[in-house]
Amino acid sequence: MRSGSLLLRHPTVRQALVLVREDVPGDQRLIAYVVIGGQDAPEGELRSTLRAKLQAQLPAYMLPSAIVVLPGLPLTRNDKLDLKALPATNALGRAVRDLPRTATEAQIASIWGELLRVDGVGVFDNFFELGGHSLLSTQVVSRIRELFQRCKRRCYPLLAQWG
After folding, report:
1. DSSP-assigned states of every residue in 78-100
2. In terms of CATH, what superfamily is 3-91?
3. How many whole angstroms from its chain centre is CA 136?
4. What class has domain 103-161?
């Protein structure tokens, strides 16, 4: 089953579109765009719910790097979908909830932010929900090894777990 079809099964999702974007040359990512109606939950909570639903039914390579909530899908003058008008994922604002508390967390947050192209990585942000994937996680581990001359055997998805 495809990601878009699964997203449409959620009761608040009215429209869904999943496509590959290459906002940065050489960095292709699967992005989901959803239009919702009758939303009671905050957008962040809705994104987490949708992501969990997709993770339960799809292999990792089919999971979108980001889920973008839009008021409506952009249309051309001819009422066709305007793919060029869809927002780039790095242009979306995110709220930072918990800033790094230690120098180690700040250094790792900086690495994540640089590789994921996001500002203000919080200690409870999830690497994969920010757009990370297995190839980027290997780069994270490599940079942490360079920086600290050590690396835990496991790559943790929450920044706070590295502390």
Report:
1. TS-B-GGGSPPGGGS-----S--
2. ANL, C-terminal domain (3.30.300.30)
3. 13
4. mainly alpha
Alpha-carbon distance 87 to 53, whole Å?
24
pLDDT tens string 24-33 = 777 788 889 9
Cβ atoms of 155 and 140 within 8 Å: the answer is: yes
Domain segments of the chain as ranges? 3-91, 103-161
Q: What is the pLDDT of residues 61-100, one digit of tens each?
A: 888 888 888 888 999 999 999 998 888 765 443 444 567 8
pTM here is 0.60
For residue 40, give Cα distances in angstroms to 43, 71, 133. 9, 15, 30
